[in-house]
Amino acid sequence: MKQRPSIALLIESSNSYARGLLRGIMSYIHEHQPWSIYLPEHGRGNVPANWLNNWHGDGIIARIENSKIADAVVKSSVPAVDVSAARLAPSLPWVETDDHAIATLAAQHLIERGFQHYAYCGDHRFNWSCWREEHFHQSINNAGFDCHVYPQSTRRQKAIPWEREQQRLSEWILQLPKPVGVMACYDIKAQQLLDVCRTINVSVPEEVAILGVDNDEILCNLSEPPLSSIIPNTHQTGYEAAALLDQMISGHIVSSEAHLIKPLGIATRQSTDIQAIDDKFISDAVRFIRHHACDGINVQDVLKSIPLSRRVLESRFQKIIGRSPHEEIMRIRLDRVKQLLEETDLSLIKIAERTGFQHPEYLNVAFKKQTDITPGMYRRNQKTQEKNH
């Protein structure tokens, strides 16, 4: 019997990006010959454990984040593939996300929302953040706009205490022209921006629209408001890394040039679900609707919050937003209905109560008018998709 190749995976499992890589590797194994996997407990940036110096396996897939890991993997003399943007082992084949494509997609997403002002908030300790900054800045400039960049003192500065970073982020956000579309280098930085905006009473997305990267669904949906995020194809990245390693184990020569994987798209949530609005009264009306739509408000309640007649509100709202105030109220309510159908087992009566519908029958009619199916069918379809996925 042919012995299974013994493969070490030096990839942490503490974040959604790394778990996506592992799922891609797993898919490759399931579709091809089995591997004997060694997945030690490993944190991002950890120094190599002693076992690696004396390991005699057949291959390694590693997220190489420091020079000690790089040296240990290279010295092991076994076939290895790097899945880190740090690029500390240039002799190894390298599979990474396409940061140019990510930044271009982010710029397109924000430009489509009509902003005149743009900004990038990154972390210069990481190559991928610097590359995304460069490409986002270029994309925004090519579109004829300026891009404000969060200032950082040195490229490889250590992480500073959160209290100090929070103060610096607050000062930066306050001085940005508004409304502004902001790309954050990844979801954790985007969540920090959301927290800061809430602390200094800057409205998201009306004044600052924020877009992250990685689409960590738990992090994005726990954010307030829920965070829009670019979806990297981590599954394909892991799958490609496994395929390259398999070729190397079989004796094929694999180039050390970059294998870059394009993102899948954008998961649009509330943090960028906006058209840039220069009209203060319409901006205030949109903000009021977003905050209170599920409280059962109507257009008359909106009018109480701004000094406009109904005719002027309807006209200006339709021109800027492309929907009437009533349609916007219903859109937000029904988006919340979909979320509750997907994420909870609440009855339709309870969902109606939580989304501003006086009767579940009215919710049912409104939902079917928008989606062509009933709420019950929508919930069943979502559960079927989850099982298939």
From TrEMBL:
<dbReference type="Pfam" id="PF22177">
    <property type="entry name" value="PBP1_XylR"/>
</dbReference>
<dbReference type="InterPro" id="IPR018060">
    <property type="entry name" value="HTH_AraC"/>
</dbReference>
<keyword id="KW-0238">DNA-binding</keyword>
<dbReference type="GO" id="GO:0000976">
    <property type="term" value="F:transcription cis-regulatory region binding"/>
</dbReference>
<dbReference type="Pfam" id="PF12833">
    <property type="entry name" value="HTH_18"/>
</dbReference>
<dbReference type="InterPro" id="IPR009057">
    <property type="entry name" value="Homeodomain-like_sf"/>
</dbReference>
<dbReference type="InterPro" id="IPR054031">
    <property type="entry name" value="XylR_PBP1"/>
</dbReference>
<keyword id="KW-0804">Transcription</keyword>
<protein>
    <submittedName>
        <fullName>Xylose operon regulatory protein</fullName>
    </submittedName>
</protein>
<dbReference type="Pfam" id="PF13377">
    <property type="entry name" value="Peripla_BP_3"/>
</dbReference>
<feature type="domain" description="HTH araC/xylS-type">
    <location>
        <begin position="283"/>
        <end position="381"/>
    </location>
</feature>
<keyword id="KW-0805">Transcription regulation</keyword>
<dbReference type="InterPro" id="IPR028082">
    <property type="entry name" value="Peripla_BP_I"/>
</dbReference>
<dbReference type="InterPro" id="IPR018062">
    <property type="entry name" value="HTH_AraC-typ_CS"/>
</dbReference>
<dbReference type="InterPro" id="IPR046335">
    <property type="entry name" value="LacI/GalR-like_sensor"/>
</dbReference>
<dbReference type="GO" id="GO:0003700">
    <property type="term" value="F:DNA-binding transcription factor activity"/>
</dbReference>
